[in-house]
Amino acid sequence: MNLADQPGQSPAAQSRRAGRCCAKSEVVTLIWAVCGLSGVEKGEFVVAGSKVVSEIEPVYVNSTGEFVEVVTDMCARDGILWYRGHSVPGWDVLPSICRGYTSADERNLANRFRSLAAIRYSSAPGYDASSGWLSLMQHYGLPTRMLDWTRSPLVAAYFALEKYLPEGDAADHDDVVIWVLQPHKLNAQEEFIPPVTPSIDAHMCEGMLAPGFTDKAEENGKILAAMASETDLRMFVQQGCFTIHSSRTGLNKRQGHSEFLRPVVIGQSFTQRMAREINACGFRRGDIYPDLGNLAEELKRAHPPGWAAT
């Protein structure tokens, strides 16, 4: 079923679908894109002000409760969903290696990391274990062809709202967006057979990963949703999964993406409030990033000098 179809939604969700405006007393205008609008193909919606680009109208929420209600309706209708939070609404749904890097840059980074990391990391994968190396690169922040998703909508909300949390560094406010993906629908549309979500270590992922290391491997131009191998505590806590990109076109700009992808927008007037709600629900830096360095950083920001005396 297309994400645009709305059977069985609650009255509140139907009300949002009917066109509730985003906050701050501003009217959010949906512009039907036409030729001459840079970076946008005909038939895509552009949300004026927030710059979310999609061929399907976003859903707007203004509280954590509303967000949970929306994804509950989506899950009941569409089954398994993955989520990704963007603090910058205009970002395309695209991995970091596709943002300014060339294919040669990608291979250079991957092979240099593989050559230099083993002595620094005792549990390094075998040399030919492409999935293991790319997962390690992704974990440590090296640009790769993999894009992080989570199976938890509230973890995605944390990442979208992170800079508005008490320990965040937001200087101003903007809309944020949480992208909702139907992974099995994506893989079916990309003509993977069977349209399952394989482990990143599975054979069907190898051809998608190999071009990141060698120019002898051909790109197939597809995007594949794959499960992470949970060998790392952070991956386990964040309920991580990936899309592997053999195409440099963002998921939100691929033709027909309304079949498997939808944006949920949190208006700028509600980001601070929702950040406080997410924090109150226990989604905090030291838990999302479960290592001692991030725990220490969370505690320093939450408890500045003199805090215990107040």
How would you characterize this protein structure?
The chain is of the alpha+beta class and 310 residues long. The chain has one domain. The protein is built from eleven helices and ten strands. The strands form three sheets. It has a four-stranded mixed β-sheet. It has a three-stranded antiparallel β-sheet with strand order 1-2-3, with no helix packed on it. A hairpin with a 5-residue loop joins strand 2 and strand 3. The longest helix is centred in the first third of the chain and has 15 residues. The termini are far apart. The N terminus is likely disordered.
Describe, in short, the structure shown.
With 310 residues, this protein is of the alpha+beta class. The chain has eleven helices and ten strands. It has one domain (11-304).
